[in-house]
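Researcher: I'm preparing a figure for a lab meeting and need a structural model of a single chain. I don't have an experimental structure, so a prediction will have to do for now. The sequence is pasted below. Please return the structure as tokens so I can convert it later.
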Amino acid sequence: MKESAPLGNRASTVLGRRLGGELLRLRDASGKTQHQAGQAISATNSKIVKMERGWVPMRDPDIRVLCEFYGHSDPNEVAALLSLARLDRERRKANGWWQHSPKAGALSEYIAMEDMASSVRTWQLSFIPGLFQTAEYIRSLGVGEGSWKDPDEVERIVDVRTKRQRRLFGDNPLQLYAVVWEPVLRQLVGGSGVMRAQLEHLLEVARLPHVRLQVLPYRSGAHPCMTGAFNIVSFAESEAVDVVHADTMTSMLWVESRAESAVYSRHFDRTARLSLSQHDSVALVDSIRKEM
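Model: Understood. Here is the structure written out token by token.
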């Protein structure tokens, strides 16, 4: 997976890039140059470049001045940009456990976002969602994947993933809505014993009041989410736009615009409507568990 590109002691973050992209869009629409924008906030061209590329955290006064300079006066949209800037600043200064984990790697950015999130919607067609995985299931995935040959490395991966699961518990638990394809439940990752224990654990977490689990059955046929798995990360601030995360074999994909994240949300909702109800989904999981 690819890490965010650093610049000195700064890094381009998902939220920073999205905010910078919005400011760049507003500047282009206004016909202003980077030099003029810099003068508006008593800064250099270089600072405007860094802001528009998401390389530096942004101050609320600078955002307000630039919005006014660009002729962008909609209070709701300005508030959304300020909210995004606050989230980005919090993410940059976060010193969570993942910052010290040698195996969090490029996933650190996602874990930091997940830690700040109020809710996550996840669609999975190959694996049990990471926040539901047992240690033995994670180990079995590592062995099957083939690149984790060092047992200590596998254990570090297990440690990272199980620590993430803390977000499902505590005073302010993550709201998690998971839709999984039926074959995920039947694939014998690690053998029948590991899968039986995994499905038992899945039944336990599915009972949590802030967890919603639905299963898309074989019989549903074609559906909007056939192209791949993804996570939609949402934040408590009403102005904050959802961020979409997806993994490929070689990279990490972020969808950072309001329009594109809305497409993922619509596809998730349509696939969820094709899925079994919560009650019937839990019954199917339990039936498959008994077969094992």
